[in-house]
Fold this sequence. Notes:
Mean pLDDT: 86
Radius of gyration: 26 Å
Shape: elongated
Number of strands: 14
Largest sheet: 8 strands, mixed
Number of helices: 10
Strand content: 25-35%
Order of helices and strands: HHEHEHEEEEHHEEEHEHEHEEEH
Oligomer: single chain
Distance between the termini: 38 Å
Amino acid sequence: MPSRETTTTRxxxxxxxxxxxxxxxxxxxxxxxxxxxxxVGTDEEIGAEATLSLESDRDSETLxxxxxxxxxxxxxxxxxxxxxxPDRPLEFRSAVFEVSWAAVDERTExxxxxxxxxxxxxxxxxxxxxxxxxxxxxxxxxxxxERVAAHEDRDEPALGAVxxxxxxxxxxxxxxxxxxxxxxxxxxxxxxxxxxxxxxETTVHTYRYELExxxxxxxxxxxxxxxxxxxxxxxxxxxxELVEEAIEDGRAVVSRDDDAFVSVGxxxxxxxxxxxxxxxxxxxxxxxxxxxxxELDALRTRQLVEQLGEEGE
Length: 313
């Protein structure tokens, strides 16, 4: 099988990982990296490739947070980790914004977790039916009946299911299972289920988000980036084959330490990427008179990963 595998959907590729590559190339050579090139003929297209955009139906909570930050100058949200960590400017309200965030406070919250042991003959006789538990417990363990019903092979070892109680919304004083369980075995779908509870401590941070407008539109942002285009010329035959495969098919995936991929990557890394992390870099590339938004994913190509690590420092 050839060492390079192609696909036509750049957006799908951006969501790929090393695991994704392994799936795509199962049974073939070990993938070492990928070159993705999307044509961008206008400033609007450049800006669209260079920014994030959110969907109202999928990102409603993030959009609400950004709306507050836009209206009030800043907004705060609590969580164990930042709920939104964009790696590039955001298209929002028809403009382009840099999003910054910082942890401004933290606290420790106590919560509870219940582990339900399903399918074991050693749990004992049920002491209460699931339906007779207090509402707070039925809510926290709402998925348990389905899990028990799905556990059809009674000869298999016991299956543990973990359920976390909602620290913010649950009336834990009414619980029969946390913090100290009144019952060790409950009946679910006619089956005995062992119950154990434990206390957890979680550090919750307060994050402050702020927006700074950097362009009035994606087209204007694309105009700003146009001057950062990098010419890719004087290529060898193998390098040209790689680049044209990436252009024609959307991306070219290579085996580990592919010579053409390494040399093209080194050429690109002579110029500062527009965006980068320890494995990937993105550039606006000019090739044979046309512009392409280009991503180099070094994946397992050691030489390029080392250089990207240096770029990111």
